[in-house]
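Incident log, structure service

09:12 report received: a user says their structure output differs between two submissions of the same chain.
09:20 pulled the input from the user's history:
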Amino acid sequence: LGIAHVPDGRGTFSHLTVEENLRLGAYTRRDRAAVAADFARIYGYFPRLQERHRQQAGTLSGGEQQMLAIGRALMMRPKLLLLDEPSFGLAPLIVREIFRILRTINESEGMSMLLVEQNANLALELADKAYLLETGALVMSGEASTIAGDETVRRVYLGY
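09:34 re-ran on a clean worker, output below:
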């Protein structure tokens, strides 16, 4: 259906190599030349994965596993990428790098993304539209820049 999911908790196949995990993302594809080009594209976004392409996924750092989970989803060539808490449990430097790459993918490839993220500051920096939920209820929706600039939202949810 053109939708790929990056689950929380990484969701890599830990006993498989980086390359095998990526290949699983393209499992249903038959366009071998395009799949080969997508390996190069993914490795361009995530050079660490190329360096570790023969390494077992379970031995990667948390940030590298998250990059692998995103890369595997991108190998499906989705129109919509669903990301569930991509920053969870990662070092701030790695989180910034991953969000920078997600922005690049969104802008250069025009890929739509639905992001569920508790780090509201990061989410609002990446998003065009935002939906603020509190205990499962919709509190506010609209342009991310408008929500980020709202004084009450900044004070109550963003901490500044």
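09:41 both user submissions now match this output. Likely a transient worker issue. Closing.
09:42 reviewer note: The CA atoms of residues 1 and 144 lie 27 Å apart. The two ends are 40 Å apart (CA to CA).
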